[in-house]
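In this section we walk through a basic example: taking a raw amino acid sequence and producing a predicted 3D structure, encoded as discrete structure tokens. The instruction is simple. Fold the sequence below.
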Amino acid sequence: MVRHRKRKRGPKPRWASAARRGFTLLEMLLVISIIALLLALLIPGMVHAMRQANGTVCMHNLREIGQALHIYRLENEGWLPNVDVDSRNKVSTWFVKLFPKPLTDYATVTCPEDPFKGRFRALRDQKDDALKANASSYGLNNFLLRAGGGYLSNVDRFQPALPMNTLLVADIGPDHHGTTTEQGKDKGPPRNASMLQWDDGYDPFYEEAGYPWVTKRHGVGINILTLGNSVVQAKTADVMRNPIRSYYPRCANGGCSLCTELEDLPHYNFSEDQLYWYTGPLPFGDHEVRR
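The resulting token sequence is shown next.
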């Protein structure tokens, strides 16, 4: 009978014992550091990509609102939807008149980057339109509704000289604070019935002087729909930083009616992006602007 000798096993390789004992503290710290470094590199890019995607949704919303306003004008002899105040001083503003047609999706009036976007969603089933007045993420150019004794709101008849450069609808703030009810619920900031005011009392040196609607919602500025139905981004850092004036040379050279047709009417200036409150002569020589 042949006997087999038992082979002597040599020393175990280092990797085998290391695998059995698991990671050392130093190795775990090294892995965690690598993961943290990767997250630090990836997260800002992901946040930037998300903001870009939200900005694209916002632009799409503005185009939808532009189409809805165009349909409304066709059905109402060229007039934009107005702002109504009832006997109880409750406001029914412009965008509620676009539902349920031509607008059908309530999300259209909420910008994904608006920190108070949930406010309108919570109110959309309310029958009282006055509750919705300040809840939209977008505002309508109030100058078009007020100037020329109100005749200017018939934009089909009194169309400005540069409709592609005339503000119609834009992101509206403020985005930085809210008001609280007696029950402690956040009502969100006042937004002037979702109207863009040419001068809302903003003082860059005293924040509490008013409730400025201009914001930097999309990083560098806001999205604006023009009367020519184009959507552009306006940089607002300088607009928010500088005091409001009644005359800007660059704004006047671009054809801004508030600079060239009116006197002593302070207004926000978006001329850096070739955007204006109105361009061209005001109707009937009536230069009164009613607030």
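Looking at the output, two observations stand out. The first helix runs from residue 14 to 21. The chain has seven helices and nine strands. In the next section we compare this with other chains.
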